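Please describe our next protein:
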Amino acid sequence: MMEQHPILQMMKKENLTTFAFSFNKESQSWDVVFSKEWTKKIDWSAEDPKGFTRSIKKITKEEIKEIITRHQLEKYINNILRLIKSGRHELVEILYDSTWDICSIAALHQTSKEYTVGGIRRSLMPKPEIEVINDVLNLSRSMTFRCAAADLPCSGACLGLHAPQSNPENLDTLAGFLSYISRRYKVKWGIESGFSQAELKKISGYAEQLITNKHSDLIASCSAYSIFIAIKQALEYRYPDGKLSGKSIGIEGLGKLGSQLALLLLKEGADVIVTDMNPDQIQEFVKLHTPEYGSAITAASPGEIRMQMGHVFVPCGYSGALSRDNIHEIKYHIVVGGANNVLLSNSISEEIDLAEKLHRYKILYIPDWIANIGAVICATDIILTNNVPVLEEMQQKIEKICTPLIKEILIQSRKQGKYPLDLAYQKFHPILYKQDGSGIFYGNVQNNIGEY
C-alpha cells in the first residue's frame, strides 16, 4: 500500500512528522519544511498529549534536498508544488504519525481575510495520497471563491484526514489527533464527510470547537436551499416558461444534501430521478416518499442516471463526479453543481476547460461554488454570532444573496456569449487578488463561443 503514499513512506523512513510547503510573502518564494515534532510514544488520547519533542528538529535545506533525492521524489514533489502554485495556496502541511498510521493534509488557500473557514474530510488509507492532496487543494481554493461569492469576510481552507478504518482500540487516538490538528491552525473547521456516527460522537467530546453533526441538518438544509435557487434561476434562463413544475431533475447522491434537495423539488411539482452509490439509500428514499409523491420519483442506478433524458442534473455525492471520460454521457440540458468540485480537475484552467466542453455540448453549467453557497453562509453565521440561526431566517438571507448573484452571471453570460464558470472566475478573481490577473487562467480559453 505504501507505494501509493510516497511522501508518507519517506516520512516514516526518515522519522519525520511534518512536511510543509509555505509561501514566504516577504521573499515571494516557497519554503519547504521537514521536521520532527513528536516521538513515537505520543498519546493523542490524553487531554494534554505527552510526547512532543522539547524543541522541534528542523531539517536544513541541504538535508531536505538530499532526502528528496535519496527517495527519488524530485519529480513527484515538484508536481505537487506546481499544483500548489497554480492554485495560489499559501500553506500546505502534511502531518504524519507513523505509529498509528494517521495523516492530516491541510491546505490554507489565503490567510489575509479576517477569518479562515474550511471543511474536514476523511478518506481511508487505500486512497492514493496524491488524490487526497489534490482534493484538499481544490476544496480549499473553491471555499475561498465560495466565500467571495457570498460576500463573506473569510478565506478557504480544507483538511484531509487520511487514516485507517477506526476500531475500539484507535478511536480515541483518531479523535485526539484530529482535536490537536483542529487547534493547530487559525481556522474555523467543520466536519464534512467520511466519518461514522461513532467517530463523530467521539470527536465531539475531544474537539467542541468543531462544527460537527449537531449542526449538520441545518447546514445541509441551507446548502440544499441555495442549490434549489440556482436550479430555478437556471430554468428561468434556459426555458420560456421557467417553471419547476413538470421538469425532470436528476439527483446523484442521497445523503442529507441530496435528499433534502429532492424534497424541495418534489414540493414544487418537479419529477426527480434519484440514485446513490448505496442501494439501501435509494430504496429507503423511494419507500419513504413514494406514498406522498408517487410516480414523481424514479430510481436509477449510479451508472445510468447521467444518461437519463431530463432537464437538470445535480451531482450531490462526491468530488470530481464529472470528468473528460463521462461528460459526453450527460443527456440533461442543465448541470448545477451540488457536491464540491463537481468537475474533476487539477487546476482552474482544467476546470474551465471542462466547463467549455459542457458548453459545446449545449449544456448550461452552474458551478458548485456559486450554486452551493448556502452551507458556508449558514456555517459562517454560526461562527460569527455563536448562535444557531432559524432555518427560515437563513433561507431569506440565502435567497437575498443567491438570486441576484446567479441572475447577474446568467444575464452577463447571454450578453457576452460566455459560459457562467468563466464569467464567475473573471468576476471574483480580481476581487480576491486585487488585480486583473485573468490572463493567467483564461489566456488559452476561447470565450466567445456562442449562446446555448
